[in-house]
Amino acid sequence: MTGRLSPAHHIWLARPSLNLDAAQRFYADGLGLRVLHRSAHDEFAALLMLGLPGAAWHLELTQAHHLYVAPTPTAEDLLVLYLDGPVPPDLIRRLEAHGGGRVAALNPYWDRWGVTVRDPDGFRLVLCTRNWQSAP
């Protein structure tokens, strides 16, 4: 690394979860992410890594073994996926069938340009109809 970030650097977003099975159903079976890794026997926590093969990012959900770490999402803790087109109604139905709940966004921008769904731990997933490069 030359001291500068590049598009090749990987992004890892980590969050606590109270139920990794429910999270896997929501993000893998509902949204369509792949389980990149799942471990129940790490010293500190069980973990679930989700993403897309070849992508420079992944979502890691952890459940600590020996202490209680509650997810503390706010209405502005968002994971935004820019779909560059309409949100497929069957995707919303799958997310709801796999533990999600559609909610109104705190910021009306997201209701104008997409759909917000709460995951089983209360974090918000926004499916945005815009291309990320066209979003202000």
Automatic annotation (TrEMBL):
Residue intervals of the VOC domain: 7-130
InterPro entries from the UniProt entry: Glyas_Bleomycin-R_OHBP_Dase, VOC_core, YycE-like_C, YycE-like_N
SUPFAM superfamilies for this protein: Glyoxalase/Bleomycin resistance protein/Dihydroxybiphenyl dioxygenase
One Pfam family hit: YycE-like_C
Name of the molecule in the record: Glyoxalase
